[in-house]
Amino acid sequence: MHHTPSGLSVPGPSRRTLLRGIGGAAALGAAVPLLSACGGDSDSGSDSKTVTLGSNSSDAVPKKAFAEIYAEFTKKTGIKVDVNTKDHNTFQEQINSYLQGTPDDVFTWFAGYRMQFFAGKGLASPIDDVWAKIGDNFPDAMKQLSKGADGKYYFVPLYTYPWAMFYRKSVFKENGYEVPTTWAQFIALCKQMKADGLVPIAFGDKDAWPALGTFDQINFRTNGYDFHVELMAGKASWTDAKVRATFDNWAEILPYSQEGSTGRTWQDAAQTLVSKKAGMYLLGTFVGQQFTNATDLADLDFFAFPEIDPSFGQDTVEAPTDGFMLSKSPKNKAGSVQLLEFLGTPEAEQIYLKADPNVVAASTKADTSSYSDLQKKAYAMISGAKSLTQFMDRDSRPDFTSTVMQPALQKFIRDPKGIDSLLSSIERQKKTIFASS
Amino acid sequence: MSTFDTNPVIPGAADAPPPGGTGTPSSPQRLKPPQGHKRLLTRKDRVALGFMAGLPTFLHIALVWVTALASIALAFTTWDGIGFGSIKWVGLQNFRELFDSNPQFWPAVQHNVIWFVVLIAIPTPLGLFLAVQLDKNIRFSRVYQTAFFLPVVVSMAVIGFVWQLIYNPDTGLINSLIGANKPGHYIDWIGDPDLNLWAILVAAAWRHTGYMMILYLAGLKGVDPSLREASSLDGANEWQTFKNVIFPTLRPTNTIVLVVTIIESLRAFDLVYVFNGGAQGTELLSILVTNNIIGESSRIGYGSAIAVVLLVISLVVIIPYLVSTFRKERRA
Most CB atoms closer than 10 Å: which of A288, A350, A425, B7? Predict the structure, then answer.
């Protein structure tokens, strides 16, 4: 209300403004319940004929493959699967609030520590009843990966894929290279490739996670699976001489790794393998996505990361596993259990693998006859492994790997000489992070 | 202000059926004629007013104050974001950890400062220069104006993405042109901590120049032409006119420019986040906050502590500005 200099108010227009203001306020007031409705339950999923499912497979190929599995499930049981797909990274970033709010009945997730974390927080339901039916379909290593810290099952694995050294058969044949199995052979091969004008090891760490995979390989080859697990769990010390030995080995192959790696994406690094400029590349089998030409893809092959300490050999394989979990209070529990049981069958896995040839089935019962050579080899590698790891950010606390390890490893790659102060810095930060919660 | 005040009077007077003189109510009221100006507000009006003042106040308190104070409180706790029961009071531990053992914290503070210094030192004078040139009504001035201002219209995320393509070590424009994309010759614009901050600042300055140009251009349009005339009559050359006459009259614009640049350098985030995710060499406080809070098993307490540091820095900058502005207003 404004007063004119004479001390009189001017009511006419102010009344109008008032009314307009009321209109605006009313509109706002109306918007508030609307907003809150967004967070509320939608009743569509509460009937017994529908199961809701939150999915992170936003890429076209896996999305379609999953849709085919659900269609088959609906055909069999008459239960509809209502899929709610979110962008892969967004799904991961929002998982905390998603699981605490009103999550879908079933959701896609990763095996290992990352699954156990939410199980331990009571944000997932145990599914021992499902495993009573599907247990025979899986090898022991998969069973271990699907259990929470309390020994109950929380996870149904669908597919898995190994990390390994990828190379092009034609490049090895032309230059007369042989697949190295020991560290000495590996170093010699790197030297030879460099002399031949190739980039021995393609490398791209712009997104900061690929280096975690390199560390994993060198660490469990140098120190063995048990120490690796202890280190990931925050029990072993990062200033231990064993960790230092891992980094010394890494520093030995850094001169043979592609330069400028912290500015390069993994896709660009993979392209140097596609174009035969690089000799080898350490990555998961999803590197095959970059080989868009069928003859190039047929030329792609891989070998297990070479042995460093003979007492550990090549017994550990890094094989991240993706699958499904049941949320804390599913609206349609019976239907969700049925769906999870179906997802744990070889049949469901085969439907998926037909559409996505870069991965292999988690079940040993799945039919392997339709596998490509690469898939067969990956399958043999995983089933022959003594121990399976997931990936550093799946085996350890994600807050530790993303805020401490990712920047630390990028730093190491650029400045391997500063390793000692780097390791003590990692250890200091690790202690406070693992002490919390 | 003056137009704002006088404008409503005119339609108001036109609306009121009896163009009453002083003392008579100008609104068509069926109730008894009010005596004092207090009575001019009916019950309904007061409810409506209360509602109008109350709702924004409520929203402001809930969305600004409560959240800000909550994050200050959280800075003294550890919390993984799951259930309120898991909030644990840890006192100053987050800050101690931040100042002593976080290898990214001090570089981040330093980079925020560099960001500000560079924006003030390069794009701001450049923007002023361009504005002065465009103010001379040269030919195609509209075209230049649009061209220089376009980067400001584009979102920061898009700018980051585009420049990231230009700086790409293997296929980027720069390395391809100078032949630095072969083994042994690599220039890692994005990853090298000695280079990447400057590489990003080029992109930031590119955008900021246009922004500053528009602000100064608006300021220059408001300069009284007679000042120029008088100064040229006094025999001052162009530079002297600018230095002694025009620039001093741009004082209010300079204040806005300073504040805008400080804000830009404190909130710098999206460009870097898209460019290289705040890797070594380009750490910024805003990115540290995001990395610690967003994501699974988030460190909300620790991230809040970084946010509080950012808040304190902002206050240190903003409070003197507000104090001087209020003082000036009171004087006027």
Answer: A288
For residue B271, give its domain range. 105-282
**Exposed, middle or buried: residue A88 (CB in 10 Å: 0-12, 13-18, 19+)?**
middle
Pick the CATH number of A163-318+397-435 from 3.30.565.10, 3.40.190.10, 3.30.230.10, 3.40.1160.10: 3.40.190.10
B110 confidence band (pLDDT: 50, 70, 90): very high
Structural domains counted in chain B: 1
The Cβ of residue B166 has, within 10 Å, a number of other Cβ atoms equal to 15
| Model confidence pTM above 0.90 | no
- Non-local (6+) Cβ contacts of A9 within 8 A are A1, A2, A3, B37, B40
Which of B13, B190, B295 is facing A402, going by the closest CB pair? B295
Task: Look at strands A316-318 and A387-389 and give their pairing.
Answer: parallel
Cα separation of B100 and A259, whole Å?
A: 32
Q: How far is B15 from chain A (nearest CA, A)?
A: 7
Whole-complex ipTM: 0.76
pLDDT at B201 over 90: yes
Identify whether the C-beta of residue A50 lies closer than 8 Å to the C-beta of residue A332: yes
Residues of chain A with pLDDT under 50: 1-46
Tell me if A263 and B52 make a contact (CB, 8 A cut-off). no
Where are the domains positioned within chain A? 43-160+321-389, 163-318+397-435
Select from A402, A405, A433 the residue whose CB has the most chain B CBs within 10 Å, as the one to mutate to test that interface: A402
Residue B124 in contact with residue B261, Cβ under 8 Å?
yes
H-run or E-run covering B89: strand B88-89
- Burial A199-220, CB ≥16 within 10 A → b, else e: bbbbbbbbbbbbbbbbbbbbbb
Q: How big is the A-B interface in CB pairs under 8 Å?
A: 174
* Architecture label for domain A43-160+321-389: 3-Layer(aba) Sandwich (3.40)
Question: A272 contacts in B (CB within 8 Å)?
Answer: 170
Residues on chain B touching A18 (C-beta within 8 angstroms): 45, 48-49, 52
Spell out which residues of chain B touch residue A414, defining contact as CB-CB under 8 Å. Answer: 191-193, 280
Tens digits of residue pLDDT in B202-252: 999 999 999 999 999 999 988 888 988 898 888 888 889 888 888 988 988
Instruction: Give residue-wise pLDDT tens across range A3-49.
Output: 333 333 333 344 444 444 444 444 444 433 333 333 333 444 446 78
Q: Are A381 and A162 in contact (CB under 8 A)?
A: yes
